[in-house]
Amino acid sequence: MSRDSLNLRGQVFELEQATHLGADGIIDRFVVRGFTPNGDAAETLTVANGQAMWKSQVDAGSAAYTTPAEYVTAGGSFEGTAMLIDALLRQPDKSLALLPSGHASAERLTQIDVGAGTAKKTIVCWAITGLGNSPIPVWTTTDNEFFGAYFGLGLLPAGYEGALDAIVKAQTDALANRAPVIRNAVLKTPAGPVAFTHVRAFVDGKRFAEDQTVIVDHGKIAKVGPAASVSVPASAQVIEGKGETLVPGLWDSHQHFGDDFSGPFLLSLGITSARDPGNDDSLTIDRRNRRAAGQLLTPHVYPSSLIDGKGPYTAQVANVATSQAEAIALVDRAKANGNSTERSIRPGSRRPPPKRTSSACTFTGICQPACGRARRSRTVTMRSRIFTS
């Protein structure tokens, strides 16, 4: 049984998860109950007689179960995620089929030493793909047992909270090393003009026009008009667009830029400009510099510097001001850093949390495999604290 009790700036998460391992070491039964800010978090999974059946607040279904496959919960506890990582890293090729569908894989990124004295240990960072649009960094021991993670919040064993900064830097640097590889693999810079011919084009900022030709030169729209009357330069790369729709680059007016992999994802959706209403300033500046140096593929991001008051509901990545003078200094710093806007949050504006919750997250999981043999018994116990960076 594992339990998560979390108060994130007034957003309350209360979850319990009972988990059972099958003979193949994969979860074959669990029950989740509790609530999150989205409401009821009830969820179940049962694997029996060659069939997997699940039900959550977002879907329900079943599938044949003939080879090991780990179910990815819609919610569930942190311990459930840790068990998925453990199962993935036990596979010889570090890959695992998923339910309801998909496939997860793990790539080793880097390792660091944390702790001191008898508590000193080496931990390994893995990039997990297949669970989202971006690789998810997680940390394990050298024996591939889940250690912790940082995902805007830090989830670490008690006693290792002081390692958070080193963990964040190590995983950020390791993931950043992958960004130029992606950029060079997908970015194509035309040698001359590009002509999109016979497209349905969005023109005048307000309407679609049929059978248009659009000429783009050096990243800018040079000419738009009926295909029959627009002359295509002899040196242009021609892209036949009959039956296709062409629009200018899109704006995302509220995009908390997540990581290096958000860039290619947003560009694939046609988003070429984005307003970031608040983020970690140091990471924002680093990404901007790497984009300018040709190391990172992203839309043009117009960042805000988030300024908040000090208190229990302070935003995780905010710059904290406790006086008017400090707030003015933060605005001046944001301008010097090239931020396009500043965003302030009025202290105390968030709803106070129910008194029964705690900012600490403690969970203990006991998993008994189906066969019941002592050598397969496994007890997972972890005491962790959720804390903001």
Descriptive report:
The longest helix has 13 residues, at 78-90. Residues 348-389 have low confidence and may be disordered. With 389 residues, the protein is α+β, with helices and mostly antiparallel strands. The strands form four sheets. Strands 8-9-10-11-12-13-14-26-25 form a nine-stranded mixed beta sheet, with helices on both faces. Helix content is 17%, strand content 43%. It is built from six helices and 26 strands. β1 (2-8) and β2 (11-21) form a beta hairpin.
Compose a concise summary of this entry.
The protein has helices spanning 78-90, 164-176, 179-186, 262-268, 281-292, 324-336, and strands at residues 2-8, 11-21, 27-36, 39-40, 43-48, 51-55, 60-64, 69-71, 95-99, 103-114, 121-129, 136-141, 146-150, 153-157, 194-203, 207-217, 220-226, 237-240, 245-246, 250-252, 271-276, 300-309, 319-321, 341-345, 362-367, 378-388. With 389 residues, it is of the alpha+beta class.
Going across the biggest sheet, name each strand in turn: 8-9-10-11-12-13-14-26-25
Q: Return residue spans where pLDDT drops below 50 for at least 5 consecutive residues.
A: 348-389
- Principal-axes geometry comes out as globular
Computed CA radius of gyration, to the nearest angstrom: 25 Å
Task: Return the structural class.
Answer: alpha+beta
Task: Give the helix level as a range of percent.
Answer: 10-25%
